[in-house]
Write a structure and sequence with these properties.
2 domains, 4 strands, about 15% strand, elongated, transmembrane helix, membrane, transmembrane
Length: about 180
Amino acid sequence: MDFSSGKYNTILLRSVIMIIIIFISFYIMKIKLVPSFNVIISKNQNISLRQNISSEQKMACIVYIQDKLGRFGNRMFLIASAYGLARLHSCHLYVELEIINELKSVFILDLSPVLISSSTFNSLTRSSSKSMNRISQSVVCDYITTLTRPNAIPSGTIFELVGYWQSYLHFAKYD
């Protein structure tokens, strides 16, 4: 076989182009079929009460978001930061339903490992047997290194995020 012939070079070039097209196709399919972030619960109420009761015994703190400061991008950072802190400190996560609905209009959210329903949040915060301390942390585009320390959000605490939590370092570990 003559490897220097033009016919061989044409076949080789076509084969290489086909292989490249196949790799690019698989890459594009992978991007569309497997999104880069995990997300699947649409409403706080979708979590069963049985899950909440069993997780109440394991988690003794709540990371909480109530206010809708800023625009959509700010709220995305706020939710991601709250999720990251809740996971880091084994806390529950409670986000007002209005904020969840706003984000789920664009994204599919799966906050299920830590998210609790409105009724569970209300029962935990109104329970007279367990008095919970409230801590509100306001941040303006800053990374709070002290929140990465063990017990930074102590047991029996409702930790409210307020402001503009715009550092990816609060949640990068859980992407």
